[in-house]
Amino acid sequence: MSKKGFIFDLDGVIVDTAKYHFLAWRKLANSLDIDFSETQNEQLKGVSRVRSLEKILSWGDITISEDKFMELMAKKNDDYLTHINTMDENEILADVPKVLEHLKEQKQPIALGSASKNARTILKKVGLYKSFDTIVDGNDVSKAKPDPEVFLIAAKQLNTNPEDCIVFEDSVAGIQAANTANMISIGIGEESILGEADYVFKDFTQISSEFITELITN
Ligand code: B16
Ligand code: MG
Fold it and tell me: Looking at ligand 1, which residue's alpha carbon is closest to its atom 6?
């Protein structure tokens, strides 16, 4: 059987941390008198922390000093981490462990490819830290998604050619990154949002073992 490389995004694919990002960003935005809706939160999925704050400030038409910018980023992250600290294995999204197990049984290399600088902390909290052969996160990249850097580093660390990699992603930026890297992109979410992906599934409960086997053998 051929060896592929399976790369998983974190937020929105393995766990739903978007809800915690939302609470932390909303608190920060409101403290600056900026409104922050769930629709706006959608636009921050897969986007780096720096870029997220830039976007929020532009929505509020606010300019701040670099020092203040750093201070707000730290504040948001502190607040976000108070939510992350409450997480346990119950927050792993449905059927994710099943798919990981299946891949492991088939001896397929597995990587994490996330924009988050908190990825390792989150994986430890939910007990999945040891499930990945390699972890590439926001601390390891200089260019954020849609740049393919995070996935290309993951492929390299798995010792797999990019065209033999399969990426699971919930964000438009992440799907674009996978496509640019010449990888097979699998969107987890809505077809109307992730239409650029090679395949889209609502969640992992919709992905059959046969489909995974096909990905491995084709
Ligand atoms: P942090 P992913 C992304 O993670 C999130 O989707 C995005 O909303 C967040 O701003 C980004 O990580 C940075 O996260 O502040 O924890 O470094 O979806 O690429 O796993
Ligand atoms: Mg994501």
Answer: 46
